[in-house]
Design goal:
Layout lengths: L1 H8 L9 E10 L10 E9 L2 H25 L27 H12 L14 H5 L12 E3 L7 E3 L2 H19 L3
Antiparallel strand pairs: 1-2, 3-4
Helix pairs in contact: 1-2, 3-5
């Protein structure tokens, strides 16, 4: 298991298209001085590119194959071989919305009209599914502030004025995209 994590972290993921990975959760066994009958690892892999994500997935599976083969070669398999089962536990497919589409331009205008500075970033959001299907989609902020995303101490300030301002941006973008003046 440890060899798999080390080998994964030896992969130099492309910066463009942005591709990231982590060995997020590991565990197994029942005590410190016994051979575990089962171990597990959860890997998180993301990319702006479906092609790069598939390449990374293939590399991870090759790493797992090699780690299992190495463990079976290094130890007695008299009571059974080490094996693994890969399971997909979640998927946010890669996608992108062309910045020249109406939904992007109109949302950007709504964001700017509210006094915010529009930015374009790739992220793992609910917009990933429609974008992966070729349906233009955007994700906008709440208007408030926050920090430490995905950490145990992640936070968001839901102060009313800032939150209402953020909701106004969403409503304005929605109405503009629907063609309401």
């Amino acid at each position: 298991m440890a060899r798999s994590v080390v080998d994964l972290y030896a992969i130099d993921a492309p910066k463009t298209p942005k591709t990231t990975y982590s060995a997020s959760v590991t565990g197994g066994g029942t005590s410190v001085n016994s051979i575990p009958n089962e171990v597990f690892m959860d890997f998180d892999m993301r990319s702006e590119s479906a092609e790069q994500l598939a390449k990374l997935d293939g590399k991870l599976l090759a790493i797992l194959d090699a780690a299992v083969a190495g463990e079976n070669a290094a130890r007695s398999t008299r009571f059974g071989k080490v094996s693994y089962e890969a399971k997909l536990i979640g998927e946010r497919p890669a996608g992108r919305t062309d910045p020249n589409t109406d939904i992007v331009r109109l949302t950007q205008a709504a964001v700017a009209a509210a006094g915010f500075t529009p930015t374009h970033e790739a992220s793992s959001t609910d917009s990933n599914v429609p974008m992966s299907l070729g349906i233009p989609a955007v994700t906008i902020g709440s208007g408030g502030t926050g920090g430490r995303a995905h950490a145990l101490d992640e936070w968001i300030d839901v102060e009313k004025a800032a939150s209402v301002k953020g909701m106004q941006v969403g409503l304005a973008a929605l109405l503009a995209t629907a063609g309401v003046d």
